Amino acid sequence: MIRVLLTDDHPVVRDGLRGALEGEPDIEVAGEAANGAEALAFVARHHPDVVLMDLRMPELDGVGAIRRLAVEHPAVRVLVLTTYDSDSDVLPAVEAGATGYLLKDAPVADLLRAVRAAARGESVLAPSVAARLMAPLRRAPAGELTPRELEVLRLVAEGSTNAAAARRLFISEASVKTHLLHAYAKLGVNDRAAAVAEAYRRGLL
């Protein structure tokens, strides 16, 4: 059972999310929080698997809460669910350690898939968000991966999860995610399997 905490300062949004999730046999709404501070307190007491996190909230915003959760409760996955997809929202959230980033206009089916993927530790990005993250890298010369990006790809090729790769390299999961996104852009691919295959094809691994 995937236990989910709903974090949003609008009760109507939380009610809608609860309605979307509660009918699923493998998902349980563990609780609700109206801001980042309440989310941190709830996670400390109840240890949910996934936190659905809005970004713009009073007291403690989403990015601040994500940063704290990454340090204090690294096993808890945070899936951002917000209205905003500007660079000033997306980049800080991903760098803080968010596992995924969805927009509130996403179909319910996409939300459910994202919750399940986040629980498995997989990154899920709205298409517009992925485009924003990768756009600055499109100009990078193909194949010119940094040594760290190659290290991450080697571990992925060996079957390591993001968490395992982070432990091996003594860096954060967020950093592993960032290195992978950079590698995807440089290799012209969209997922881990394709990145590994393309790296082998180019003789990089």
TrEMBL record:
4-aspartylphosphate PTM positions: 54
Lineage, opening ranks: Bacteria, Bacillati, Actinomycetota, Actinomycetes, Pseudonocardiales
Name the record gives this protein: DNA-binding response regulator, NarL/FixJ family, contains REC and HTH domains
Membrane spanning residue stretches: none
Domain Response regulatory as annotated: residue spans: 3-119
GO molecular function: DNA binding
Pfam family, one: Response_reg
Organism: Amycolatopsis saalfeldensis
Record SUPFAM superfamilies: C-terminal effector domain of the bipartite response regulators, CheY-like
GO BP of this protein: phosphorelay signal transduction system; regulation of DNA-templated transcription
Database matches in CDD domains: LuxR_C_like, REC_NarL-like
InterPro entries recorded: CheY-like_superfamily, NreC/VraR/RcsB-like_REC, Sig_transdc_resp-reg_C-effctor, Sig_transdc_resp-reg_receiver, Tscrpt_reg_LuxR_C, WalR-like
Keywords associated with the record: DNA-binding, Phosphoprotein, Transcription, Transcription regulation
Residues of the HTH luxR-type domain: 138-203
Keyword presence, Coiled coil: no
